[in-house]
Amino acid sequence: MAEVSEVLMSVLSTIRVPRPGDRVHKDECALSFSSPESEGGLYVCMNSFLGFGSQYVDRHHTRSGQRAYLHISRSRKAPVRIEGGFNVEQEQYEEEVKVVLLPDRQEVTSDDLATMPDVVRERVSLAMAGLMSADSVSHALQVQQWDGEVRAESRHAIELKQLNNGTKIPPCGWRCEVCDLQENLWMNLSDGRVFCGRRYFDGSGGNNHALLHFQQTGHPLAVKLGTITPDGADVYSYDEDDMVLDPKLPEHLSHFGIDMMTMEKTEHTMTELEIAVNQRVGEWEVIQESGATLQPLSGPGLTGMKNLGNSCYLNSVMQVLFTVPDFQSKYVSNIDKIFNEAPSDPTQDFKTQVAKLGYGLLSGEYSKPAPDPGEGSEPSSEPRVSEWKGDQVGIAARMFKALVGRGHPEFSTNRQQDAQEFLLHFINMVERNCRSGVNPSEAFRFLVEERIVCQQSQKAKYTQRVDYILQLPVPMDQATNTEELQEAERRREEADSSGAPPPAPVRACIPFTACMAALSEPETLTDFWSSAAQAKTTATKTTRFASFPDHMVIQVKKFTFGQDWVPKKLDVSIDVPDTLDLTALRGTGQQPGEDLLPEVAPPPLMTPDAEVKGILGSHGNEEDDSLYSPLLSPVLDDSTVSQLCEMGFPLEACRKAVYYTGNTGIDAAMNWVMGHMDDPDFSAPLVLPGTSSAPGTTPTESFSEEHLATIVSMGFSRDQATRALRATSNVLERAVDWIFSHLDDLESMEVSEGGRSAADSEGSREPPPGPKVRDGPGKYELFAFISHMGTSTMCGHYVCHIKKDQQWVIFNDQKVCASEKPPKDLGYLYFYRRVTE
């Protein structure tokens, strides 16, 4: 074996010192979920800065030829026991860092470097120090993605008038001036008087005396005593009816003798209280089965996922997807082939990261109980079942989340998201990474048949579209406990008028049969333009299945808009069945003797502009007479556009809604808006058919060369990059999202797939002709459902229940337990699989 110093000297040119902008992966293996805390630690390549667990570092060495790796190993040390428990503030890990040279695994410590030549010692020491001090990719993403609750600055804060009444507030010992309550106390920032806060519907909280004081005096701002720290405090504006920011808070507190820099937190913040109240009542307790002692489970297919900050929507969806055989066989069964074909940077390759996640969930390697805070670095191999609560070490899918969310305005953040929207987003990514060949998304893909009958001519029109999710309406007027709901509403109104705490909410009970009836009943279309009558008339639209998928996903439409267009969640209980027969909803196509509407377009909405640009127009030329006619612009119903704008939608989106619905009225335009709100180019300018730019622009548009270069660097052509920027008003982030959402529309696509060209990626460039769907009997059985807790998709928490070996299992992030009472009536997304006869 050669001398270590000689080996280091021979590879010195491959050892790099991290520079600003380098991606350093020192927290997670690129091909597994090994970390410095795992057995064997983590090996970081000192050239590419990719991290690998002990089982994959030899593979990387063989493929890349790199020999020098920084080995980082952390072991948990037992915290010091103090009175009342453990000192959890103490450093929890002991860290060991050394250079390892492959293939012989020769080790070099910092002490060993002291005896080596100066050039070796200096270069390697700098590289080691640089790697350890550099921010890891996962840490940088956490900082970049973090988007907590943003509070607006109060309009009263800057000019707030404070009374010089001599009031001085002591640092502790506060009481409500009316009822002597000693908690949930608020000091009015105008006069320094202290009162208790509002009463919650479960009876906790205060007695509303701070609110009454505002109603009597009009003093708008109050600070919650006990939440004041040098970093800030909870400030509420009664006039604005919201938590707010007070940029002059230190000055306002000092007026009443409070030194903000010396205060310590002694009370829960309002956010913490809201979470605690939600967890005590209603659906939180039921969905998470909090009232029962659940048996923890572990093993293959029973691995928990760490919550990375509002990532429970992603955790729940991926747990369910890797229960589907198509995803298992595509990504997990072929994991060795996928890893062998991975590009030089596997952290950016979609197939590699999905396979890594699937194997992590199904293998059982990470399905181990989380270490107890009082234990040292040697966790017992078998947990004490009586003490284990079900929390696992689990896996932290940071690399996967960063990849699938990259470039997306929502999934790239740490905000809570809609699980249904993420499911469709992930399916879309699978679709474009499986252009042909085996595509696991086909398990969910089905055809919808829409039959529209003109009531004047009785002629029909049939269309088909592809879908992945069946959206189930919730007819609230079909509730079976109407009297109980009316009584609860009466009590709530009485409480509001008297100032008493609101009563506990009552959940509406909706029969599943009523939901299916609402789904299948015909929809009336007003202002329908009939090609047979050549006029607007009334039509009926009936929706049926043209095919039945292997797996049916049903979304209960719990989230809707109120009359003020504010999103709200319907609190309903639906008796969703374990078995489902959709046979009666299969479409039949054109019936014998049924006449079809003629394929004639409605009258064009185009009219000459007032300004005519001359014989050639402003853009004509002698060889091209296509522009001899006057410039054209759409004639839109201004009243409909105005109504949509008043609802808060972007002007260009409103113009497109009116244009694409043929000026047929507000209802049709509103339906278009609701159906296209998630489009990347939703608010982009209206581009008329047959043109390449919006009205008022010229064909010689200029786009940012920096934006063009960025998109081209992703593997797209300059023409494709130009088209994306044109469609999104030259906004880079939207253009990236647009181009990935319109792959089927772009010709000769040469998309880089994690550093590989289209020739190396799976399948051909051209998509298969027409949608490929599976079909079979419409009988299904329930095998999983995802539930949501909270008032909106933008907040709250998701968990999923999955049926494994005839046993329902609850997956609540890292907690995996046998379910005793699966709340099937409170689900949001239901997953059925076809029953084979």
TrEMBL record:
Q: Where does substrate bind?
A: W186, R198, R199, Y200, F201, Y236, Y238, D241
Chain sites annotated for binding Zn(2+): C176, C179, C196, H209
Q: Does the keyword ATP-binding apply?
A: no
Q: Where is this region: Disordered?
A: 365-387, 479-505, 751-776
What's the top EC group for this one? hydrolase
Q: Which organism is it from?
A: Hucho hucho (huchen)
Q: Which GO terms describe its biological process?
A: protein deubiquitination; proteolysis
Tell me which UniProt keywords the record has, alphabetically.
Disulfide bond, Hydrolase, Metal-binding, Protease, Repeat, Thiol protease, Ubl conjugation pathway, Zinc, Zinc-finger
Q: Which residues form the USP domain?
A: 303-835
Q: Which InterPro entries match?
A: Papain-like_cys_pep_sf (IPR038765), Peptidase_C19_UCH (IPR001394), Ub_carboxyl-term_hydrolase (IPR050185), UBA (IPR015940), UBA-like_sf (IPR009060), Ubiquitinyl_hydrolase (IPR016652), UBP13_Znf-UBP_var (IPR041432), USP (IPR028889)
Boundaries of every UBP-type domain copy: 152-260
Q: Residue limits of the UBA domain?
A: 635-676, 702-742
Documented EC number(s): 3.4.19.12
Name used for this protein in its record? Ubiquitin carboxyl-terminal hydrolase
- Upper classification of the organism: Eukaryota, Metazoa, Chordata, Craniata, Vertebrata
